[in-house]
Amino acid sequence: MNPSFPKWLIPAFGLFLVIILFGSRLFVKIESGEAGVQYDLVAGLKVDRVYDQGLKIIAPWNRMFVYSTRIQEDRSVMEVLSANGLTIRAELSYRYRPIEDKIGYLHNEVGENYHERIVIPEIRSATREVIGKYLPEELYSSKRDSIQTEIFNLAAERIKEKYIELDAVLIRDVGLPDKLKQAIERKLEQEQVALEYEFRLTRAEKEAERQRIEAEGKAAANRILSQSLTDKVLRDKGIEATLRLAESPNTKVVVVGGDDGLPLILGSN
Known about the structure:
By secondary structure, the protein is of the alpha+beta class. The chain has helices spanning 9-26, 103-109, 114-131, 143-160, 178-228, 231-246, and strands at residues 27-30, 34-40, 44-45, 54-57, 63-68, 72-81, 87-98, 164-175, 251-255, 264-268. The strands form four sheets. A three-stranded antiparallel beta sheet has the order 3-2-5, covered by helices on one side. A three-stranded antiparallel beta sheet has the order 6-7-8, covered by helices on one side. Strands 1-4 form a two-stranded antiparallel ribbon. The chain is elongated and about 150 Å long. It starts with 8 loop residues before the first helix and ends with a strand.
């Protein structure tokens, strides 16, 4: 070997070859909103170790599996049976994501296609199970929100066991045969008319009750007043009024002792 040949070039050249051949396996870039779990060829999958974002260096014989930890959205269209056996077309949208600190367990038990294997089947199963307890017209009424919540709670509980978090479930559309849909709409319109009529009737009854109470109050006041106005009280009130008139500069003669004992005023300017 040439004594002038640097010995360090041999390992450097070897390292260069390793980088060229296995560079894509040595360096793994985990973007923001992602997390990784490493499979070690010797030790196996490290389910408890989750790698966060950044550049990671691993042995070329190992492998890093990268998962998105952001909330993802998808839609599902399915046909379900209602409580009375009618077929309903339901369109749902849902949001989900893997539980970040459980990605190793998710990868070990389910795999990267967890959406197709777990999320979709559980969403469909929960939807069929919940809607099957209700009538079609209930999906057009205020129960729609409660049905939506019930589907979410049932599906979220099931997929959480597989290390997946369900963020929301929304019923986007409900498809029914045209005749059934028109019948439901007519029924809802009639219910609204009935509610409006009941409201008007209640308002009229309350107004009649108010007038009755007001009339009874006036009658009671008149009875009390009439009972208090005796002849003596009336004479006293008359004398009091006459005396006030007598003090007027236009009054000339006041005669006491008229009919019923009331004073008389005679003459004025």
